[in-house]
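> Could you send the YjhG/YagF family D-xylonate dehydratase prediction when you get a chance?

Sure thing. Input:
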Amino acid sequence: MTSPDFDLDTLLGDGATLAQSRTSGEGPAGSLPIDADTLRDSPSGHLFGMTQNAGMGWRASEVARDPYLIVSTQGGLRAEDGRPVALGLHTGHWEIDRMVRAAAEAFAAHEGLPFSVMCSDPCDGRTQGTTGMFDSLPYRNDAAVVMRRLIRSLPTRRGVLGVATCDKGLPATMLALAGCADLPGVIVPGGVTLPARGAEDTAIVQTIGARFSHGLIDLEHAAAMGCRACGSVGGGCQFLGTAATSQVIAEALGIALPHSALAPSGEPVWLDIARRSALALVQLARQGTALSAILTRAAVDNAVMVHAAFGGSTNLLLHVPAIAHAAGVERPTVDDWIRANRATPRLVDALPNGPRHHPTVQVFMAGGVPEVMLHLRAMGLLHLDVPTVTGRSLGDNLDWWERSDARRIARERLRELDGVDPAHVIMGPDAARAAGMSSALVFPRGNLAPDGSVIKATAIDPSVVDDDEVYRHTGPARVFASERDAIRAIKSKGDDAVRAGDIIVLAGCGPAGTGMEETYQLTSALKHLPWGKHVAVITDARFSGVSTGACIGHVGPEALAGGPIGRLRDHDVVRIEIDRVRLEGRLDFIGEDPDAPLEPAAAAAVLASREVHPAIAAHPRLPADTRLWAALQDASGGTWGGCVYDVDAILETLRAGREVLRATRGPQDAGNP
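Output:
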């Protein structure tokens, strides 16, 4: 055993601080604002709550004000001047304490009593390619449960303000508020990171390892770009990934203020959004308007349509149904997503979709969500009579936005600072189609995906799409049972290397295998390798919202639930067809001989006769927490139901299981494992 670095006095203390410590103190001055009726009729918890409020230092005469709870995903600890004391897990939650403070001050200034609680969130970028990713999607459900428990732990709250930014934290916060829809609630999107001048963005910089491995960049470049990607200390990533799309969806649902999504983190407008959101919540509470009046099926329909117009992250196929379920609203189906994507082309030119690749802050300055909604309104695609957190209808909000100074100033500022025409960022449908911006999502089926799958068709490199706007790729399968093996083969230059024309099949990485990990490591590497556009990816896992290329995810059923994707072998022939005009697609195994392809039905019979690939199994380091999440969401409808916890369905499954156990074990053993 090596000698310790610190002596015991240093580690255990020399007693000096004991000599300075008190054993009693003065209580707060003043008296609680209570009367005899309050003492007789109020629960003891309400009375003790006022005692606690005074004990924490609030003015005794004001401790009975209307309480407003701020739930945030704040992470890390900053000094008063902003210097880091303890780092957060990502920039997205690093400085939203400033938003919390601004909102709290607004509540206090309007006769409210602000409370703040936190349930921080992970970073998908930080956990890419690690077992930390196994906790990413399950975190969403768990955090929503914790947040709801915190909300219910302040029984007198008049309303809830949710402040969050990133991939899982913001969906969790929306789930939490939707699950407390009997209360007034408002979401404050935590904003986006500024792009750094002369640097790579936070999507490209995640590929420095793959590019260096193939000699595309040198060590000096990798080290410099890896340092410089963030142009501000806070905010979600600069591209329209899951974090940014979640902000867009919050606003599209009507539960965040108009033009609050994608604001530049740390800037004056960002803080102002927090203040105004607090005022909106006070108004909703005074009017007695609960979130249940806002989170309706019509609001969900609007959100699905806005998602299509933005060309948003495929991860929202998991989150929007979950938010609807939490609110007690019918969940959107695949058919609803298809209808929305057929109704509108993508209207937003943003990273990573292009063609000009504007960062998200430029989307905000071009008018953001309300600007897109103006176009959708003109196309007759929105429910305009839905209520929103402004206390007005969506139609009223859009009327205001169209003639507002805020709209004019934002768009002028974009021209002034960046020399960018707002009409090149957010377009009308005719201009979008002329720019080649077709509808975004396609949901391929076939003998490899009988329950469905999804691809962001607009993210396929145009040079590999035929003139009729159909992507066709038939090639040999390269089957991997772990992302680690797949990325190793992508980086390799040896006999095991992935090559142009291959179809990477990553199976066993759905909920039961890895917690449905995100596989941006693969798609980002392929995007930035010269031959990567000639490789397709098929997986029962999911992708980052910034993923691009011919990558097909959410393949169902997952391999470990008996899905045919788990029966493929190396060199099996797979055929992919994605029609970007008709928004249709197929994903089929067609046999073992490329010169003698089988019809899909005959090939399906071949697959059915096989055993599952011997390498496919739940990851040995899959946490027990995640295994439980996978089982619960499977009983609740699985990934295509939003990975929710449907309590009634879970209880029904448990009851059915007990009945089987009683029948097989006997009544005396039915309760034993």
